[in-house]
Amino acid sequence: MSTSSHVSAVLAQGGEIPAPHIEYGQVAPMLLVFGAAVLGVLVEALVGRRSRYFVQVPIAFLGLGAAFVWTIVLGWRENPHSVAAEGALGVDGPTLFLQGTILVLALVSLLLIADRGTGRTGGAVEGHFAAQASALPGSEAEQRTAEAGAVQTEVYPLMMFAVGGMIMFPASNDLLTMFVALEVLSLPLYLLCGLARRRRLLSQEAAVKYFLLGAFSSAFFLYGIALLYGYAGSVRLSDIAAQIARDAGNESLLLAGVALLSVGLLFKLGGVPFHMWKPDVYQGAPTPITALMASCTVVSAFGAIVRVYYVAFETLEWDWRPFMWAVAILTMVVGSIVAITQTDIKRMLAYSSIAHAGFLLLGVIATSPNGLSSTLFYLLAYGFASVGAFAIVTMVRDAGGEAGHLSRWAGLGKRSPVVAGTFAFFLLAFAGIPLTSGFTGKFAVFKAAVEEGATPLVIVAVIASAVAAFFYVRVIVLMFFNDPDPDGPVVVAGPATAVAVALGLTATVVLGVLPQPILDLAGQATTDMFVR
Amino acid sequence: MSDFPWLSVLIALPVVGAVLVSVIPREREALVKQVALGVSVLVAVLAGIMAAGFDAGGPRFQFEERYWWIREFGIHWALGVDGVSLTLILLSVILVPLVILGSWGEADRSGGVDVPPKRSVKTYFALLLSLEATMIGVFAATDVFVFYVFFEALLIPMYFIIGSYGGAQRSYAAVKFLLYSLFGGLLMLVAVIWLYPLSAKPAAEGGLGQGTFLFTELSKLDIDPTTAKWLFLGFFIAFAIKAPMAPVHTWLPDAAQQSPAPALVLLVGVLDKVGTYGMLRFCLELFPGAARWATPVVIVFAVASIIYGAILAIGQVDMKRLVAYTSISHFGFIVLGIFAMTSQAQSGAALYMVNHGFATGALFLVVGFMIVRRRSARIADYGGMQKVAPVLAGSFLIAGLSSLSLPGLAPFVSEFLVIVGTYTRYQWAAIASVIAVVLAAVYILWMYQRTMGGPAAPAVEGLKDLSVREKWVIAPILAIIVAMGFFPQPVLHVINPSVNETLARVDQRDPAPDVTGNVAENGARP
Fold first, then answer.
1. How high is the pLDDT of residue B96?
2. What residues form the membrane-spanning segments (chain B) (predicted)?
């Protein structure tokens, strides 16, 4: 008789702590990603330094790929609409769509992260990440790591943990799980932001800034959960909804809780006035990580916010709508206008991402099946265009790394017409020109908003789009109509990055010209809406 | 043959041509030009064959195609032409080969006026062909969403043509052009989206019971007056920017000054017509009540454009700017004709769209020939060209005279119809707009006198007259202008049924002739 069987026998007799029932099949995508992450940590500990990269990359690809396939099969075969893991997670159409979106975008981002360029310079393997982030740039410690041939491979498990958190975040059916997911996705991202190989101080500053502001917003989020618990006596979204429907409880707790919770969520997706971190972090972080944040994190945060607002606070819409209108208008207007003054390409794309968050909030405000499905479509379309655009940013390089300053991009259209043309296409997609995915997405979201009577908001959105078009067009002017600088940047395309760009481009074209299949998929995913 | 997807083929062909042109190796410039010309001629021939099968007395929309495109949003890939759109498509497909032939040297390494050398020749021709595809598409679309898509897509090739092949201030002009049009287009987008929930309403509430963007369906909508006014404004502002009318015209002179002259033929001759075409087709037929409501204001703006454009044209020192301002004046005439809401005025306006395309096209082509020779668009840089290049001067004169609506040349017929048709309802507007006819004589003849008349300036001595290629470019246009000046009937025959449909939809009848000269009562429903 071993001890363990004894313990279980006691537990079985007492019945006080029943083993939780886990629907392994339905939560398998998360388990696969977390499993790959844990495996990655073990690889870091056990595999030799030189071969780690070659072990980590396949693990990461396999983990994400298997999770993606599982998600597809789950949605296709079972079309689940139930809660899993004792009600902690909701597995339903919108969740599976969001998880699939996050996983596929993570796969594309992984291509960027894993790309180490075409060769070696100065003995060290080219890549986007510092071998030892804590070493001061140019210090002795750094030289030693470079001489030792150390390569940064911790990014892979860190990224896996972040992606795991991201696919858990929109699935969370209670606020506590949601908080755990938020932290699981955020903490690795804070670290990843500080790993840039070039412009190390900027990168470290970005990481610290992101961490401090992120911790602050987590505190808001947690406080909101506490107040809502005080109101409803439960952290389950459906219980909160039921309590609101009963019109019982202390309403000031509820409203304060909703407000604080919203602050935490809006921070993550970069809604104004909680957007301050975005430009700095997007600029400082290694560009592949920026691509990951601009696509997957945004999808995940929107997934969480729609679940919270559609499930828990749907009947409270008269209270939160004015607030969300204000945030959406501010986000669109500030994002579009401030972007005009930017001179750094990554900062400009960061403000563009803020403006897009504003457009996406229209879908949240609509609170209808169409609002939800249009948001899902927009997220997929925007995610692909973002990854593609940031992938191109990684390709345009100066002697000191990526050519960040916009003026360096002058005349790129004459040096590398294909790269510049592709980037112009992504910019046109961001601007919402027809026959690009950006237009279809905007059209879907605006239509949903008009149907729900938010026409004034759509007019603001349209004017913001016109303003935003200005700075997208300005970059196109710079690339095509200006003459190139003789010692301008060169285009360096690693094979994996090229594949990522090609995928982003294909998705942007297909979702713009023949969006029907994906619209159908988003429509099917939202027919039953969220599980409660 | 009736099931043959004529319009889709006409749209697809130039796209295929553009792709072909862009895969030809960079060095083989002659081949690039030949392929581009060949494709555009093929398109013109096909369009001609299609037009021969058009039955003016038949159903309103012919050569219809309708497939689901995005079912989720009720969007069809729906094409079809009525008389007005057919003539505009013909205008486009005739102008494009001539523009390609006229651009033979424009995008060359040698460059036109201050065109920086070493511009990609094949990109220029690929852009021209893609422009042709979008032009055909925008006139052929019978689904409002498809129309919007082409309306926006038009901008992109033109933007790159101005921005890459224009003059010194080209990027400023290109951005101004794009942002003005994009802004208007986005306002229209709100209105387009708004139509969907309106059409999705049940029939009892004035909807159709099913969300759609099909023009023929949407024109059955019964929209409540307040909403209709907003929607009308959304469409109208977009079209007024495109057309362009004062006070939102300022992008056109800049774009015209910077753009290569042959491309201007398409920009002013065809692209801007999308604005007036849109007013006639969408503003009037989708929102008849709102159109009647807005008419007085629109008429005032139209008359203002007519006179303002003409006065400013007189003061220009740059030929391309000058012609651009004359076009603003002429667009005023077209808008006046559309909103006068009489059958004469509207037929005149629809005909004017075509005539203006040819007349202004001819003028820009000749101006382009002059620029290629003298490397300048400034009037002051010329003088006495008549003696050096008589054929060029003669073509310039005919083009100019047609632009000032000399009887016997095509625009006269349409301008006359517009003024007469307007007179029966808005007497003061007709009288005021006649002033512009006088001003037109001033700006055209004075420009002719300064550039062509007098002793030959030293700078123009030794310039060559039109080459054989250039003669082939200009001769067909001039022939059309003269032919349509004497025999406008075949075109009017095609246009009239569509115009009558529009008028019936707006519920306007021609006022009874009034010999006492009083302004006739508005025929609108009370």
1. 95
2. 6-23, 35-54, 74-100, 121-139, 145-165, 177-196, 230-252, 264-287, 293-315, 322-343, 349-372, 392-414, 426-446, 472-492
